[in-house]
Design brief:
Layout (H helix, E strand, L loop, with lengths): L2 H7 L9 H15 L7 H10 L8 H7 L9 E3 L4 E3 L1 H10 L23 H15 L3 H22 L16 H10 L7 H19 L7 H5 L2 H15 L8
């Protein structure tokens, strides 16, 4: 089975579409799946030929009719060919059940404060804000809790005193105990904002995970945004990435 055949099999009732309606899917296939930089009429025609499908009687005419800036526009004409209008591309990706990739925003905290942290923390910080931007507030709180836990562990590791937050089996303590240890540790001095808000972040996140009656809301996170930023930025500053190995 050819790649183009596999692609159209993913499109519901593709064969019921008119040849003209199929054009946008072939342009998507060429632009996204094949990563073609220049999509010309001959490339679109070749897709029909490969699949033994009758093409539109006049592909250039159909393209021209849908590059005009109006509600029916589907394509953009470039110097080297045609590309899909962004909204049409998103519609097709929705049909194909392709997850939407969001660029991380600064809606909770500046992503820049994680710039020097390991890649997994950058990813978690991005995921937390993406959850917030998509209205997934319980998931957002879970990710904020996860970031807190990682930063606290790596704070102790960065000073070579991680043994203070391990139990008799060598496992790291639960977050509640990590917070207590970080607040009472004399190697650093946490600000009042950090001391007060680490337990608050944990409490909200725990409620969102464990309480069947608690539903996180946007306002729960909004009222803590400035404090969350201070907590993360202060912990990251104290860790001073990259973490140096201690003998």
């Amino acid at each position: 089975m050819t790649e183009s055949k596999k692609f159209i099999n993913r499109i519901k009732e593709f064969s019921d579409l008119s040849p003209s309606q199929q054009i946008k899917y072939f342009i998507y296939y060429l632009q996204v799946e094949k990563k073609a930089e220049n999509i010309e009429v001959k490339d679109i025609k070749q897709c029909y030929d490969e699949l033994h499908i009758n093409p539109p009687s006049n592909i250039p005419r159909d393209l021209k009719a849908r590059i005009t800036k109006n509600s029916k526009q589907e394509f953009i004409k470039t110097k080297t060919g045609y590309v899909l209008l962004a909204k049409v591309r998103h519609q097709i990706e929705s049909e194909l059940n392709i997850p939407v990739e969001l660029d991380p925003s600064d809606s909770i905290y500046p992503q820049a404060i994680f710039a020097k942290t390991p890649s997994y923390l950058v990813a978690f910080a991005s995921e937390a804000t993406s959850c917030y931007d998509m209205g997934l507030y319980n998931s957002c709180l879970f990710m904020l809790r996860k970031i807190c836990e990682i930063l606290l562990i790596e704070l102790f590791e960065s000073k070579g005193i991680e043994s203070k937050i391990k139990n008799s089996n060598g496992d790291y303590l639960q977050l509640a105990e990590l917070i207590k240890a970080a607040i009472t540790e004399n190697t650093w001095k946490l600000s009042r904002i950090v001391k007060d808000n680490l337990p608050k972040i944990k409490q909200l996140a725990d409620s969102s995970v464990h309480s069947k009656r608690f539903k996180a809301r946007k306002s729960d996170i909004d009222q803590m945004q400035a404090d969350i930023r201070v907590v993360f930025e202060e912990l990251i500053s104290l860790i001073d990435y990259p973490i140096k190995k201690h003998k």
